[in-house]
Amino acid sequence: MNRGELFRRDPANPILTAAEWPYPVHSVFNPGATKLKDGRTLLLCRCEDHRGISHFCKATSDDGISGWQIDRSPTLQHEPDNFPEELWGIEDPRITYVPELDVYVIAYTAFGKVGPGVALATTKDFVTFERLGLTMQPDDKDAALFPRRFDDNFLLVHRPISADGADLWITESPDLKNWGRPTLMLKARKGAWWDANKVGLSPPPIETSDGWLILYHGVRVHASGSLYRVGAALFDLETPHTMIRRGPSWIMGPEASYERMGDVSNVVFPCGYTLSGDTIFLYYGAADTSICLAIGSIRQLLDWLWQYGEHPEDVQLF
């Protein structure tokens, strides 16, 4: 299986744009996704208004492809008076349903004066929300929760920025409010690699019989800008910080015109997925301008990792 065949773009792409919105927005992109109990697909879309401030708006569909029903007004706005870390908006939601709590946990970026930080909110119906506040201090983003506990603790994947770069880490909490014991999960490479210097989680972790499938974005900085592509890695089911395989190349990158041109060109940025048996529906932002869909097979992604992926001891970081 060639990496270029792992995802196919829906012919209707972009499936959602600002033109479909029932109220004025500049762009819609980077949606969190989940399958509701009634079978509908829900996208929590990042909407940027004409000031440059982002909020979230819900869209639902029976088939996850067409016939989207969009809230007539913003679903979740920033609240800088109560949460000053949200002064300049809320961005890039990632949704995890936690059966133990019977709630959806939304990890998102709160953008404030000191930079982007990770915040959490919970909801049962995507109508009312309980904010848990800032979880990871700036500069930190690209976070999502695992759907179950490990040794009595919830685990959160996030991406802090340090002088050495930006890598994926896992942090633990007994109650979704107090976090600690950070552990390195996946390190960015150096030099000319497609995922050099900065990586970040794409959608939330995907539980499979082989392990936790992690789709992540890597950023290649070049003379005329940056390229955002998607790669894959596999981690142990019971110790999710333990890597099993890491793909050497990207599996999806900007190719279509709607991914190549936009507010931020050359970007594919998935934040959500849904599953139907072996089929994965991957929802992504294209060029920070529109929302698109790519469809693949979990089994084929895993087979590709087993065939071409590298054992952690063999991964070249430089």
Annotation field: number of helices: 2
Structural category is mainly beta
The largest β sheet comes out as: 5 strands, antiparallel
CATH architecture of the domain at 3-192 and 270-296: 5 Propeller
**What do the pLDDT scores average to?**
96
What name does the CATH topology of the domain at 3-192 and 270-296 carry?
Tachylectin-2, Chain A
Using the CA coordinates, give the radius of gyration. 18 Å
CATH class of the domain at 3-192 and 270-296: Mainly Beta
Instruction: Give unreliable regions as ranges.
Output: none
Task: Explain the layout of strands and helices.
Elements lengths: L6 E3 L17 E9 L5 E8 L5 E8 L7 E2 L19 E9 L4 E10 L2 E9 L6 E7 L3 E6 L8 E9 L2 E2 L1 E6 L6 E7 L12 E3 L4 E3 L2 E12 L2 E11 L7 E4 L10 H4 L7 E9 L2 E8 L3 E8 H11 L10
Antiparallel strand pairs: 1-22, 2-3, 3-4, 4-5, 6-7, 7-8, 8-9, 10-11, 11-12, 11-13, 13-14, 15-17, 16-17, 17-18, 18-19, 20-21, 21-22
Q: In brief, what are we looking at here?
A:
By secondary structure, the protein is mainly beta.
Description:
The protein has a domain at 3-192 and 270-296: 5 Propeller (Tachylectin-2, Chain A). The relative contact order is 0.15. It is built from two helices and 22 strands. Strand 16 (206-208) and strand 17 (211-222) form a beta hairpin. It is mainly β. The chain is globular and about 50 Å long. It has helices spanning 257-260, 298-308, and strands spanning 7-9, 27-35, 41-48, 54-61, 69-70, 90-98, 103-112, 115-123, 130-136, 140-145, 154-162, 165-166, 168-173, 180-186, 199-201, 206-208, 211-222, 225-235, 243-246, 268-276, 279-286, 290-297. Strands 10, 11, 12, 13 and 14 form a five-stranded antiparallel sheet that branches. Strands 15, 16, 17, 18 and 19 form a five-stranded antiparallel sheet that branches. Strands 1-22-21-20 form a four-stranded antiparallel sheet.
